[in-house]
């Protein structure tokens, strides 16, 4: 088994995003928005030859097998709304076979695990494979290679604030890169991901691994305007018939649109995810946020985030400092109506009531609650589950590790 670890993180990407009221399909549409004003060139000689290369490579070799493994992520960690993400040990895994002797033109998809009943098996509708096709088409390869079959095993629950969509997008980015043998550098992979999921926190942490901070460059007014181009205009729903060409080409992402840095993470800090058994869509949770904030609330969060990123790297961790630094006034207060009992749940465990507790927050857009602790994990989880139970909500508890490696492609 040969492991192709992606290139080490060196730089950064970015854009700003307004995702409220959008579905993932619409977000993909945005991915395809001509942000540079110059889309991929329509199938040129270069594109055709890239496609022929991929097919020729497939045809001349035996079946190729590889895995794409992407961790889940918890973003925000209290005050770091849309800024920080933590990569954790639940994984989305694609087991991919490219068999030149198989005749299927479109990839076949099979799912097990979380979301198996909901995830589309049509590769032109599925978030991961559509993302892969976007990467291929932006890089001169007009279609999937023949004979691709993908077995998905997913441990990341949908719509719970654990970055399932970010993981699906990163899996698609790496899938496209691997199928096209593109070998894009990590920064360029991230550019493509940021065209789809416009807040960088989840996708960056999923790609890079560990505890990561990121920001996006502002789009120009023309680029911002262009983001309303509908999906149907930029990426056809169905593949063309043999010999026909795709319609309009998707725009390539601008280069270096996001920027990131990886922080340290003290090895003593343990992570507990308390996962309520209901979904909150990120789009809905984003639409609950105000358009404007008071200076007081922004300063409240900025002060805490500045302290938090260093405090979580220090050994031994300072319980009081971290607990205070994980307070938030930018997103959690506005999402409380989406998660029954949220203020009470967040107040249910403190370093005083549960020695060893470092902090508690909403994971991503919720409804999962993330607790950081030095010990006492079971008691912390039990108390939070009991609080949810008062609202007639069952929870699953996961004791997780920080996943330091980030997304990987493993050749078999
Ligand atoms: N493995 C997957 N395959 C296909 N689609 C997926 C996959 N994972 C997530 N999705 C899509 O993403 C949706 C969930 O995304 P959403 O942004 O609402 O929540 P999340 O990413 O789990 O949470 P958060 O962004 O708060 O961390 C699912 O309903 C599904 O449409
Ligand atoms: N930072 C994002 C993460 C969800 O994907 C939010 O809280 O809306």
Automatic annotation (TrEMBL):
Enzyme class: transferase
Pathway participation: Amino-acid biosynthesis; L-threonine biosynthesis; L-threonine from L-aspartate: step 4/5
Biased amino acid composition, Basic and acidic residues: 14-23
Repeat is among the record's keywords: no
Keywords: Amino-acid biosynthesis, ATP-binding, Kinase, Nucleotide-binding, Threonine biosynthesis, Transferase
UniProt catalytic activity: L-homoserine + ATP = O-phospho-L-homoserine + ADP + H(+)
Superkingdom of source: Eukaryota
The protein's Enzyme Commission number: 2.7.1.39
GO terms of molecular function: ATP binding; homoserine kinase activity
Residue segments, region Disordered: 1-23
GO BP terms, alphabetized: threonine biosynthetic process
Protein family per UniProt: Belongs to the GHMP kinase family. Homoserine kinase subfamily.
HAMAP family linked to this entry: Homoser_kinase
Name this protein carries in UniProt: Homoserine kinase
Species name: Tilletiaria anomala (strain ATCC 24038 / CBS 436.72 / UBC 951)
């Amino acid at each position: 088994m040969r492991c192709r670890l992606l290139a080490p993180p060196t730089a950064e990407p970015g854009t700003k995003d307004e995702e409220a009221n959008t579905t993932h399909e619409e977000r993909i549409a945005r991915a395809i928005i001509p942000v540079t004003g110059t889309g991929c060139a329509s199938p040129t000689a270069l594109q055709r030859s890239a496609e022929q290369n991929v097919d020729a490579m497939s045809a001349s070799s035996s079946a190729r097998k590889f895995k794409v493994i992407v961790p889940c992520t918890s973003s925000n960690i209290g005050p770091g709304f849309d800024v920080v993400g933590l990569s954790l040990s639940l994984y989305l895994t694609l087991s991919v076979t490219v068999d030149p002797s198989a005749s299927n033109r479109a990839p076949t998809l099979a799912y097990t695990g979380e979301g198996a009943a909901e995830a589309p098996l049509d590769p032109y509708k599925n978030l991961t494979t559509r993302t892969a096709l976007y990467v291929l088409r932006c890089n001169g390869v007009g279609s999937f290679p023949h004979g691709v079959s993908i077995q998905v095993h997913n441990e990341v629950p949908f719509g719970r604030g654990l970055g399932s969509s970010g993981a699906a997008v990163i899996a698609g980015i790496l899938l496209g890169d691997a199928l096209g043998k593109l070998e894009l550098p990590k920064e360029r992979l991230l550019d493509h991901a940021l065209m789809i999921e416009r807040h960088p926190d989840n996708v960056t942490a999923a790609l890079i691994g560990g505890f990561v901070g990121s920001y996006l460059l502002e789009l120009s007014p023309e680029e911002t305007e262009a983001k309303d181009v509908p999906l149907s205009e930029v990426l056809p729903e169905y593949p063309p018939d043999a010999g026909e060409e795709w319609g309009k080409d998707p725009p390539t992402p601008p280069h270096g649109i996001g920027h990131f840095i990886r922080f340290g993470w003290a090895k003593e800090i343990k992570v507990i995810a308390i996962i309520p058994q209901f979904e909150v869509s990120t789009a809905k949770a984003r639409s609950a946020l105000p358009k404007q904030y008071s200076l007081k609330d922004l300063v409240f969060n900025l002060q805490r985030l500045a302290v938090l990123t260093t405090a979580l790297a220090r050994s031994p961790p300072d319980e009081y400092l971290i607990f205070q630094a994980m307070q938030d006034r930018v997103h959690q207060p506005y999402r409380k109506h989406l998660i029954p009992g949220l203020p009470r749940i967040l107040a249910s465990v403190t370093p005083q009531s549960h020695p060893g507790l470092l902090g508690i927050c909403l994971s991503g857009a919720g409804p999962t609650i993330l607790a950081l602790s030095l010990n006492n994990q079971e008691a912390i989880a039990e108390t939070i589950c009991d609080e949810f139970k008062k609202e007639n909500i069952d929870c699953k508890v996961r004791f997780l590790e920080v996943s330091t490696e980030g997304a990987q492609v493993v050749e078999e």
